[in-house]
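Minutes, project check-in

Agenda point 3 was the complex the collaborators sent over. CS summarized: two entities, 511 residues total, and the question is how they sit relative to each other. Sequences were read into the notes so everyone works from the same version.
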Amino acid sequence: MEQMFLEFFSNTGFALADYRYLIMILVGFALMYLGIVKHYEPLLLVPIGFGILVGNIPIASGLGVSIYAEGSVLNYLYFGVFTGLYPPLIFLGIGALTDFSTMLSRPVLMLLGAAAQSGIFLTFLGALALGFIPSEASSIGIIGGADGPTSIFLTAKLAPELIGPVAIAAYSYMALVPVIQPPIMKLLTTRKERLIRMEVPRSVPQKEKIIFPILGFLLTCFLAPASLPLFGMLFFGNLLKEAGVTERLATAARTAIIDSVTIMLGLTVGASTQADVFLTSKSLFIFVLGALAFGIATAIGVIFAKVMNLFLKRKINPLLGAAGVSAVPDSARVVQMVGREYDKDNFLLMHAMAPNVSGVIGSAIAAGVLWSFMM
Amino acid sequence: MLDFYAISEHNGWSIAIVGITIVFSGLVALSIVVSQLHKILMAWENRRIWLKRFKAFLLGKGSIQPGLEDAPFEVLEDAKNLSMLAPYLPEPFTPENLFEIAEKRGVEIRQHSIHYLTDCGYLKLDNQGNYFWIKE
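CS then shared the predicted structure for the full assembly.
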């Protein structure tokens, strides 16, 4: 009987745990703390944080319940991550949630979304210089797009072994937008620039809103066919929203579908960070490079807005450049928050949504381009 | 620690430059399409006027002024809304004045309707971007 107790104890988490599991459990706590107490992207950080706890319960090999054990429940749920199934479904929801009106009313702001994507390629170079192979460097670079689903989608295709660290880095930095971006924005702009008010955008007729997702889909997919699953779902979701006759489908896409997929994606990405797989020097480099990518993307967006002002008659507030990273709608909210620190009546949110949503399009194009180069 | 030779070895510089260029070109192309979209739609909305003008041109009648009878449904709606807002608008008024008051009153006035009414001779636009009423 004593032998049975000892055998049972040797298979418990208490006996199998080592310091690496404890570190990861602390990381899980930190993410849940940020989500629940600080309200940083709670819809993502709470599932990911709890998923980290799920993935870091030490399990005896052969039990077949870990996320990497073929045929386990978690492994089935993880299927949507490593095949790249979940990101397009999230894009469907994003499309059904997004109002492209401000982008349609002032298309010049789309250039800010393009500029911020330069961070992706600069980080790609940095990752190559640090010794990552090109497919891994592409997956790390895409973190600079600040677009979690796109990062997971590309990493699933190019470097599936890095999905855990890339996804955690991408979502953590998306959640930390209110911490990372404001110092960079303030450093690169003058008070006078931060006070610039934007002109009232023209109202966009419904017909234009309906035609845009169709034209946008055709144009972007002809340019970067590798991004077809992302653009297809994004623009389809938007068409459902704007068509006016598919409200039920649009509602399903922006509520039930995106919420269910977010739960499964967050939980399984978190669970994929098993200490023995996750705690490597590569992961550390990915986190450092991801932060750099994010910072560089923000800085380039702001600087590009200042350059645009040299040529524009009606100046734009350069803070909008920071919204070029595609963390929707967090970076647009940060622009609004920083703008209102200096002028309480300056409402930049709707203007910032233009570079923000074009950033989503830009990062998906970048992902398609990188994927096609690596094929 | 940084090995810049690895970048050249993996063709990194070219990938980065071509990649940035493609992303920029894609979004520039999309922004050009988007910036022209409302003009194309407006031309489609005003197709009856264009047709009339074309016929007049063929018959050598010179230019003709469009009337509200040719206007698309949305323009007629906006014209109704505009006449309702008229007492609250300054004279002359800017599009900003109009959109602000329209938003406060919860009505929508489309930019292309203002262009249409200007074409019809109900409104007049000066070089400062101000609109004047011509016809009631």
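Noted in discussion: Helices of chain B lie at 4-9, 12-45, 47-58, 73-85, 95-105, 111-120.
Follow-up: revisit at the next meeting once the mutant set is ready.
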